Amino acid sequence: GNKKKILRHWFIAFRHHPRRSFPFRFMLKAVLPSKIHVWLKKIRTGLSFHCLNVVSRPREHAKESVPSQSIRETLHQSLEKIVHLDHCVLIGYPDHPNIGDHLIWLGELFYLLNRSNVQLKYVTSHEYFEPLTMENLAPGAPILFQGGGNLGDLYPQLQRFRERMILRYRDRPIVILPQSVYFKREENLERAAQIFNAHPNLTIYVRERRSYEIAVRYFPNCHVLQAPDMAFEMEGMPGLGFRRKAEIPLLYLCRTDIGFNDAFAPDKLELPGLIVEDWPSYAWQDWWQQRNGGDVDTWSSKLSGTSRFIREETRKKALGWREHLFQHLWQARHPLGFSLNGLPHNFLHRLSWDLFYCGIRQLSRAQIVITNRLHGHILCLLLKIPHVLVPNIYYKNESFYHTWTSRIPFCKFVSDPKKVKKAVKELRGG
User: Fold this and answer.
1) pTM of this prediction?
2) What are the residues whose beta carbons fall under 8 Å from the beta carbon of 174, sequence distance 6 or more?
């Protein structure tokens, strides 16, 4: 009770400070009693993010047995087979607003940071790759490609770039981090197979069983391994158990892009009161386009404007003092977020970190989530939110669920839109 009163006093001071820049030395001495000043100084200088234990409680579903920790251990066991990784290059920063790809990127960074004696020499997106810069910063270093769901011809620009890199850098070990494989056209798969199989040291990680079967069949000269999605690197991290008040009974996190399955359109689910949203970052992209009168080809390059908009939109919400504290500590004091500051191009990683928080806050508003996004499913698992996973346009979601997460009690996969309502009722305990 006393600690909550202390935090309440702190927020009164923080909200009315003109810069809101956390000026502890002056603000605390002027506004708060000396004992409170000493206590908050400990938060400031110590493991401040763990003070969330004062105001956080796990969700009720956290009491259930959840084998997601074993998924993270499986991920580590598989990635340990990458040898000679004392220094490396990571290519594929997600220069777009899909929060799921930013979760993957953060998982890759945290894995490399936690793996002993690994130096990340060069990071970039596929659009801003500079061969001379890579040669100067990391001569001969292994190349790691971002994981995700783009190994195929659904996203031809990314696939063509990856194929050009594999053709060009035959003298370097290349690792494709956990991907889903999907080709609509057989000739595109055969061309990729010819290029991949010609490389003398190419390792391909796939993140579900169906993709593993395709990769083993078509890429026999490559080292093909199966591993979970890289976002599971964040399982068990501090702050994910922070409990918010659920404002929405039922949320449908629904993609509307090329991966959308029309059979699971919101109006076909026949669920009254269903709130339908995509990742909030897509709304911010639309805002940026309207503001600048055109397309946003390099979305993340507008970092200052994007970050400012994220902050302002968040402040417009009627957040309670607990959420304000959580938001500030997440952005400024979280030990994992803090570790990103020492990496090359840390401003990009900080943007991904802010988007991670926005995804957490979006899903935490709901009592139950329905989603056709794989990383909506994964983030719900990390947050222990009961949810229903439905198919996207191909087998990715279903295959991933049956490969890794089918035994988790608070999530269900439904392949028939008529059965979604029943699955929701079961999750509610009805």
Assistant:
1) 0.83
2) 142, 143, 144, 145, 165, 166, 199, 201, 202, 203
